[in-house]
Automatic annotation (TrEMBL):
Primary localization class, coarse: membrane
Keywords, ordered alphabetically: Cell cycle, Cell division, Cell inner membrane, Cell membrane, Membrane, Protein transport, Transmembrane, Transmembrane helix, Transport
Family membership noted in the UniProt record: Belongs to the exbB/tolQ family.
Species per Swiss-Prot/TrEMBL record: Phenylobacterium ferrooxidans
The protein, known as: Protein TolQ
Highest taxon of source: Bacteria
Length: 236
């Protein structure tokens, strides 16, 4: 076949596999990198979806136990020695400080104030660690969401440059010469958007979920602090 004569264009010419195989190594690298980033972001998305569902479900059950009117000591004991959820850990930490202070005696208002401060520090530390744990992975989603479109755009620009190079080499502006290279370029942009859009949506959703969960822990900490203060008031 005369190389000056363009190959016939068929629907298979624009299939995803054909576009990938026909692309040069730079565009292929962009496509592969974006595909890996998309798979990674979906791994984080699925993990966060089930994790937040589990955390909120466990929090609902534990808060129902606390609001049932039972003794806080009994509820803390039922949670076990090393509970995985933050709420029972917060309860156990607050009660531990309460028992230690009560054993040493709480004869003055200053000692009671120091007890409240220690409990607040314990609760704040637990909340900070839990917030960091639930936000783990969101940074990856943010990177994929912001970088993928630009990486795809780089592949597009490179592909269009190849298209113009084909025109210059073959000295032919026929659509059959330009279309495949332009399709490869646009395919890189499409992959970038496919990777970026779910990551962007998931990042915003899970950031909101993390903030709500942290607020839930802070509300529980306030309730615990109030309960301890009420116990201190009853002792006077």
């Amino acid at each position: 076949m005369d190389p000056a004569v363009p190959a016939a264009i068929t629907p298979e010419t624009f299939s995803f596999i054909s576009l990938f195989l026909r692309a040069d190594w730079v565009v292929k690298s962009v496509m592969i990198g974006l595909a890996v980033a998309s798979l990674w972001s979906w791994t984080v998305i699925i993990d966060k979806f089930f994790r937040f569902s589990a955390l909120n479900g466990q929090a609902d059950r534990f808060e129902n136990q606390v609001s049932s009117g039972r003794s806080l000591e009994d509820i803390a004991a039922e949670a076990g020695e090393r509970p995985k959820h933050a709420l029972p850990r917060m309860l156990q930490g607050a009660l531990r400080e309460w028992r230690d202070a009560r054993g040493k005696g709480l004869s003055t208002d200053t000692q009671a104030a120091f007890l409240i401060q220690r409990i607040d520090r314990v609760l704040d530390t637990t909340i900070a660690r839990e917030a960091q744990r639930v936000e783990d992975g969101l940074g990856s989603l943010a990177i994929v969401a912001t970088a993928s479109p630009f990486i795809g755009l780089f592949g597009t620009v490179w592909g269009i440059m190849n298209a113009f190079q084909e025109i210059a080499i073959q000295k032919n502006t026929n659509l059959s010469v330009v279309a495949p290279s332009i399709a490869e370029a646009l395919f890189a942009t499409a992959i970038g958007l496919v990777a970026a859009i779910p990551a962007y949506i998931a990042y915003n959703k899970f950031s909101t979920d993390a903030s709500r969960y942290t607020g839930r822990l802070e509300g529980f900490a306030d309730d615990l602090s109030t309960a301890i203060q009420r116990r201190l008031a009853d002792r006077t």
